[in-house]
Amino acid sequence: MTSEHMPSVGFIGLGIMGRPMARNLLRAGYRVVVADVVAEPVDTLVAEGAGRGTTPRDVAERTDLLITMLPDSPEVEAVYAGADGALEAARPGWLAIDMSSISPRVARELAERAAAAGAGMLDAPVSGGDKGAIAGTLSIMVGGTEDDFARALPVLQALGKTIVHVGPSGAGQVAKVCNQVVVGVVIEAVSEALVLGAKAGVDPARIVEVLQGGLASTKVLEMRKDNILGGRFDPGFRVRLHLKDLKNALELAREAGVVLPATAGVEQLMQRMRIAGRGDFDHSGLVTVLEDLAEIRVCDAAGRATG
Q1: SS3 167
Q2: For position 302, what pLDDT does the model report?
Q3: The domain containing residue 157 runs over which residues?
Q4: CA atoms of 177 and 266, how far apart (whole Å)
Q5: Is 307 inside a domain boundary?
Q6: Count of domains for the chain
């Protein structure tokens, strides 16, 4: 697709994930207009060639397609449906793609409001963390119509590697909470294993090596082993955001009549992290709760030879 035929793209939400995603769109040749409540990432991307947006309505009016990457449902609702919200500029042919992780119910409600104005809206949350956002290799799970998905696909291909249309509006968010259930429970299981091994006197780095060679091999260990073994929990993906995702999962489970006992336990451990002031840790920092209970630090045991 030549640049003159490429849609102009708005991007609102330039945090750990959003900033590199917007940068990848610029590198792919899209004309991008950016906005955020924090000035610094806007200034950085404007210096790299993006246009500067003001309100969500302003960004929507100036672009063919709007992407949002925001913390939670209230922020998404404010950007789309609040004062000077993006939906005030919704019009036939315009498309919104919310890539935040929010409640499936809110995703469906906003899509209905966009449709009433003749516009399209997709919910397209992602998995892959900051590393996937930087590399443009995110897994993207999309809810919405087939036609809107087809229109969005070339733009999404600048951001992700695995892009799946999973169903109608809200389905992307359902898939995302399912993803976050698995990730959260696996992080907790890995944490239990490494704390147990360290407390029993075995080098947790050796345990990681063994686990990655067998049935227990997991992407969590591949991408987060250095965090856990090194005791460094710079985000990545913040605990408070994963906690929000698990709350969405439990809300959905109540609506659907599903019991999620392991998820409920992990949600409580992450709640403990938030209370302890660790809500901005990477979610691999969940290990610290179990370390506290066992009175040991995995990072202190890593690299120690066993007799």
Answers
A1: strand
A2: 87
A3: 3-169
A4: 14
A5: no
A6: 2
How high is the mean pLDDT of the chain?
95
Q: For residue 287, which amino acid is it?
A: V
Provide the H-helix boundaries in the chain.
Answer: 18-27, 39-47, 56-61, 73-81, 104-116, 129-135, 146-156, 171-199, 204-211, 219-230, 239-256, 261-275, 287-294, 298-301
Residues 102, 69 share a domain? yes
Residues 276 and 139 occupy one common structural domain:
no
Residue 279 has pLDDT above 70, yes or no: yes
| Residue 236 confidence (pLDDT) | 85
Strand partners, 140: 126, 163
Mean pLDDT of 16-38: 97
Of 131, 176, 219, 247, catalytic: 176
Residue 293 CB contacts under 8 Å (≥ 6 apart), including other chains:
none
- Nearest of 114, 117, 42, 105 to residue 79 by alpha carbon: 114
Residue 307 banded pLDDT, cuts 50, 70, 90: very low
pLDDT of residue 4: 63
Task: Give this prediction's pTM.
Answer: 0.90
Residues 265 and 193 in one domain: yes
31 and 155 inside one domain:
yes
Question: Is 176 one of the catalytic residues?
Answer: yes
- 3-class secondary structure, 170: coil
Whether 36 and 145 map to the same domain: the answer is yes
**pLDDT band, very low/low/confident/very high, at 305 (cuts 50, 70, 90):** very low
pLDDT at 303: 78
